[in-house]
Amino acid sequence: MAILVYIENTAGAFKKSGYEAVSYAKAIGDLTGQPVHALSIGKVDPVSLQHIGRYGVSKVVEVNTEQLHQFVNQAYAAVIAEVAKNIQATTIVLSNSFSGKGLAPRVAVKLDAALADGAITLPTIKGDTWEIKKSAFSGKAIATQELTAPVKVIALTPNTMEATEAQTTVEIETFQPSVSATDLSTIIKDIVQATDKIPLPEANIVVSAGRGLKGPENWRMIEELADVLGAATACSKPVSDAGWRPHEEHVGQTGLAVSPNLYIAIGISGAIQHLAGVSSSKTIVVINNDPEAPFFKVADYGIVGDAFDIVPKLIDAFKAY
Ligand code: FAD
Predict the structure, then answer these.
(1) Which residues have CB under 8 Å from 180's CB, separation 6+?
(2) Which range is least confidently modeled, 128-137, 268-277, 291-300?
(3) N or C, fewer C-beta in 10 Å, the chain?
(4) Residue 302's CB: how many other CB atoms inside 10 A?
(5) 211 labelled as ligand-binding?
(6) Does residue 238 have its Cβ closer than 6 Å to ligand 1?
(7) Which of 254, 285, 295 gets mutated to test ligand 1 (max ligand atoms within 8 A of its CB)?
(8) How far, in Å, CA of 235 to CA of 255, rounded?
(9) Is the pTM of this model over 0.90?
(10) Contact 155, 116 (CB under 8 A)
(11) For position 218, what pLDDT does the model report?
């Protein structure tokens, strides 16, 4: 019996959320006394494969079939389930990322397993019954999920677990899966990267701005602040609705939910629908010229003042640091 963790990759390297999933799987391994096997699907650089050993994985199963070089939901789910059966995995861990949200339920169905999606805690283990918490109602509540089936699939919310090194000797095994034609009936032919910016769901720091910025021409300073901090940029809904920023940057109830270590909100009022997507951020800094702005109620740090005065000063200060 073992724990299987599927590690997502992009452009041949494992994603940060993948390392977090491995550390989460290792922590479950420590609780249950089971070894952790990692699964890599697609073309991944051999150094990255070896590197996974530093995070407490005893074996890496590499599936490098050409048909699977691009992500295909059904086929990837079939491979994860097949490998899980082969190693008699009782726990399968994935990231609750865009692709993980599609994979986890498929894998759970294939393995007749219990599914904990959006996990934000390690399980409390009482024999075969595990309890895992997830964020519910757009971050306004915490739900406790009880998993009673012998096999469990857990999709971990990115940025809830720190990736920590735990040296082990890793063995890499190549595996040829038996993917059916049906699983490959829809394939992605090509993906062209549109931007080299840090992806929003993966970012440690997010610099976000709202209607207080007055117009798209003023985003230069937001991008500059993000560059200095190594952050991703985000925005409120009206900003993307007005076409000031691309829709992929819209966070909130109807946009992306993010949980970075630091969320800097500039000229955003803090409407409940916006907070729904950002309230699980570890630290929130608000910059707003209205001291009554609702965002201050949930802020860890607040600056009351004009963004056009404060942001350039912050950029200078961070550059000088
Ligand atoms: P505003 O409410 O106009 O606030 C601008 C803020 O900037 C104000 O607080 C003001 O004091 C401040 N400001 C102005 N000038 C300056 C300055 N010079 N310096 C510093 N601060 C300044 N919104 C989302 O963001 N995400 C969602 O997913 C979302 N989903 C929604 C779903 C539904 C069904 C509905 C009804 C609404 C949704 N909204 C969503 C919209 C939401 O209710 C708010 O209208 C929106 O978040 C407000 O955006 P804002 O804070 O950028 O703009």
Answers:
(1) 78
(2) 128-137
(3) C
(4) 18
(5) yes
(6) yes
(7) 254
(8) 10
(9) no
(10) yes
(11) 97
User: How far is 283 from 228, CA to CA, in rounded Å?
Assistant: 18
- Amino acid residing at 62: E
- Give the model's pLDDT for residue 181: 87
Q: For ligand 1, atom 31, which residue shows the shortest CA distance? A: 273
CA distances from 279 to 54, 231, 263, 294 (A): 32, 18, 9, 13
pLDDT digits (tens, 9 = 90+) for 86-127: 999 999 999 999 899 999 999 999 999 999 999 999 999 999
Cα dihedral 102→105→107→108 (10° resolution)? 170
Confirm or reject: Cβ of 138 under 6 Å from ligand 1: no
Q: Is 308 in the pocket of ligand 1 (CB under 6 A)?
A: yes
Consult the annotation and say whether 272 binds a ligand: yes
Residue 271, token pair as written in the block: 């409407």
165 Cβ inside 6 Å of ligand 1: no
Q: Which long-range contacts (CB under 8 A, 24 or more apart) does 188-196 make?
A: 188/70, 188/71, 188/72, 189/70, 190/70, 191/70, 193/11
What ipTM was estimated for this complex?
0.99
